[in-house]
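Same chain as my last thread, 138 residues:
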Amino acid sequence: MAAVDLVAHVHRLTRIRDAALYDLLSGGLSHWGPHEENTALLLEHQAYALELTWSDRITDPDDPKLKRERAQAKKAGIKPPPHPLIPPVAHRPDSLAEQRLREYLDAIERHRAGPPPEVKYLSSADFDREMGLTAEPV
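reply #2:
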């Protein structure tokens, strides 16, 4: 019966957020829960909205330099990402901060890489012709 009591006590300790055992099992993130993460995400979204509002207020849409840059981007086929890429500016535990930064940088790289190239499907006769396996039709 003593072993059952010990297991029950250890099991209780793993559920107490302030317990050292909980901190050990959670990798040092015992103080960081869903509420803290949601608060950090809210802060990041608010900071991003503030940056957008500020840049919109100070940007002159009739500026010739801005018009030239937009025309160059349009000519080069550069489009904004389908969803905003919000930088992780909130204070988080080190491991989570590194993970969020890595996710953000990966998202930027995926957007810069552009869409995957279009796959071209050929019929077997066209494939043979492309590979030079058959004579060109005259």
